[in-house]
Amino acid sequence: MTGTIRIGTRASTLALAQARTIADKLESAGHTVETVRISTSGDRSGAPVTEIGVGVFTSALREALHAGDIDVAVHSYKDLPTAEEPGLVVAAVPEREDPRDVLVARDGLTLGELPAGAVVGTGSPRRACQLRALGLGLEVTGIRGNIDTRMRKVADGEMDGVVLARAGLARVGRLDEATETIDPIQMLPAPAQGALAVECRSADVELEQLLRDSAEDSSARAAVVAERAVLATLEAGCSAPVGALADVVSDIDDTDGVAHTVMRILLRGVAASGESDGGEVLRASATGDLSEAEFLGKKVAAELLDLGAGASKSLGM
Ligand SMILES: NCc1[nH]cc(CCC(=O)O)c1CC(=O)O
Question: What was the ipTM of the complex prediction?
């Protein structure tokens, strides 16, 4: 690669921090990098993400890639629609941050310590229905805005707590304000939460190879493939109540009498039944080899569908 590599990013503190991690990798490999800030419709609109639709944080970056205004786009992977984008390729999925959600609550409280009637803010249908399913009598309220805006609601006393992605807090250096990391047994994160997608034009084969060599993590890639296959199979948009988490673990296989280390995936999925607000929370899981990532995702989704997931495709839950 010769010349400056232009990395496109949203202008939020979180997005800039994410783009910086990729810029650092390329710079330490001896490349010159320029960061280009791009405003997306999701940044400009104050409407709930459930109303403005999928791709609101990513389509402007993709347009800039197509137009040749940037060479690389760094996205929060969970914000990317599941449909493939012709002409573009996710060249690398870097090592993933902790994918779990966190609670940021007043007075250092955890979910179990919040009193019944406590107001907990989230704009995510996935988080809302899993919070309600805990049966703690929490009052789940819609909320939008960047991490700072959402955390201020707790500092200002407007809400007792908010639920956010742990990775987001970690990347903006505010993880110390989380009062609980929520166990995935209670709340499964969004598919691909905590992972980044490093995208470039498919025609830029040399750049694609460079990005893969400097940033790809095969475990993170397999986890994301499995989790997003759940979402794609349920044909749900990014705002629909679907959670998935793939744990990649090493295991010993000695079926042929010789011990080999193999990487395996434990995939868990959650979806809501289609009975509007407060619908039942449905769960399924599967395990298999890393190479079966996509198949496992489809399998978990099929089981969720059998249990009644998405019987009515109503969002806004
Ligand atoms: N939907 C917005 C969004 N997209 C990515 C992250 C956090 C970082 C990540 O999950 O990679 C967030 C904020 C949040 O959900 O709290």
Answer: 0.94
- Residues 201-210 have a mean pLDDT of 98
Torsion of CA 63, 74, 267, 314, to 10 degrees: -40
State which ligand 1 atom lies nearest to the alpha carbon of 101. 16
Residue 60 in tokens: 């402007």
pLDDT digit string, tens, across residues 74-132: 999 999 999 999 999 999 999 999 999 999 999 999 999 999 999 999 999 999 999 99
- 307, 99, 306: which is closest to 188 by C-alpha? 99
Would the pTM count as exceeding 0.90?
A: yes
- Our answer on whether the CB atom of 167 is closer than 6 Å to any ligand 1 atom is yes
Question: Ligand 1 pocket: which of 9, 43, 52, 78 to mutate (most atoms <8 Å of CB)?
Answer: 78
CATH placement of domain 101-181: 3.40.190.10
Query: How far is C-alpha 43 from the geometric centre of its chain's CA atoms?
Result: 17
The 10s digit of each residue's pLDDT in 133-162 is 999 999 999 998 889 999 999 999 999 999
| Closest ligand 1 atom, residue 238 Cα | 1
What amino acid positions are annotated as catalytic residues? 79
Q: Is residue 191 in contact with ligand 1, taking CB distance under 6 Å?
A: no
Nearest CA to ligand 1 atom 6: 168
C-alpha span between 134 and 132 (Å, rounded): 5
Average of per-residue pLDDT values in the chain: 91
CATH 3.30.160.40 fits 223-307, yes or no: yes
Give the C-alpha distances (Å, rounded to integers) separating 302 from 2, 84, 263, 289, 313.
Answer: 47, 21, 24, 19, 16
163-185 pLDDT tens trace: 999 999 999 999 999 999 999 99
Domain boundaries, the chain: 5-94+195-216, 101-181, 223-307
Q: What would the CATH number be for the domain defined by 5-94+195-216?
A: 3.40.190.10
What is the number of other CB atoms lying within 10 angstroms of the CB of residue 66?
Answer: 14
- Distance from C-alpha of 7 to C-alpha of 139, rounded to nearest angstrom: 41
